[in-house]
Amino acid sequence: MSRITRYFMQDELSPDDINVLDLTPSLSSTVPGQTLILKGTNSVDMVLIDGADELDFSESLSGIDLLFIKGWRREMIASVSGNNLRLARSDGLVLTAGDGDRVVFLDGAIDTHAWLQALAHQAPDPTPDPSLTSDGDPDTLIERVNEQAQSKASIMGYAGGNEASIFGQVQAGMQLVLKGSNLDDVVYVKPGTKVDFSESLSGVDQIVLSGSWAAYTKTMQGSGLRLQRDSEQVDVSPGDLVIFADGNAPVSAILAHLPGNPSREALGDAWQPSPTSPPLDPPPDLTPPRVWILSDVSALGSGQTATLRFYVSEDPGQSFGWDDVTVTGGTLGPLSERQGTGTAQDPYFFSATFTPSDQALTTAQIRVAGQRMTDLAGHANEGDSQLADGLRIDTLSMRIEPTTAPVAVERGVPNDLPDWTFTAAPSLLNAPYSLDLQISH
What we know:
The protein is mainly beta. It is 5% helix and 36% strand.
């Protein structure tokens, strides 16, 4: 099964205008497993991402586009895909970005060109620029990019695949022109935007509005329905369903009572009090928490310990503890109380001391399994999280012993010295060794 949506940003911008496509699931605009294919413009385009989608923005054209990811750089695995940068996260997010754009995380921004160069030369990943981060709502991010910027261009969206699409959102002042599939597609309309969904095809599509029935004027637009509230304008087709904040009704039932200004009661049984549209401000928390593990060292010898940090993307309350961590190759001390403030620069974390096993030559594994903690909204972490490269352990003691009994060596008399053997392989830590021989005469 596939769920594919294509977005084409329209190049009609002045220097201070900007295209913004909001794909954050906190606004119920995407679902896990959806494939999103975007084609950008020659101006600045912004995409807001926070889901388990597969998103291809390799056709970003000549503008320096900004891909805002609601996550930290350390969560991503980077690789080269053709001439593009491919980023993957454990929750299923896969992002393909073109050369010359910027990927913006909660801890800073990285130019894709610099990242691709680092990968090509097997150099360390570039350090994120903390002057531009992805924390904040869309309006905050637009202002952070350009205080004079306005979002008033147009984006076209096309549903595809053999599953229904859930369309993203544009910002106030922008227009979203959609063409649906033959299945039941969904579009969430953000206040102040213009959405044309008159080509919704044969499915019973859902148009979700943030206002109540009484907040909108309703007029005929061709064979379909136009709903207006201040600068917000939505065109829908006769076979669809409109969901308001206080109930829902089929478009055909509304059209039957036009022209005029019908009440909800005039629709009779066609008006249903449930379902209603979800509140969009503030958005509901639909995102599961994420866990990632860091160590202050990469290897340990005898008498040494490591400090581990267990970072969490959301407050886990009392749901995360010592028994949620699985370790091999050593023992884990008590977990600290939750630390950090929960911001992009200072995320929540727990710390603990790891002590390696004695007489061991191995790689320790530290892991937090999926479904072991929940955020305050009750969502559990998905999938396993583990220390990425493990922790190398070499606590073997080393002795040097002769293979034969001591031999006296007399001056001028040929004699074979004993063979010497090591009882342990050279250490992974590359510690220096020395051999002292005492020869008496």
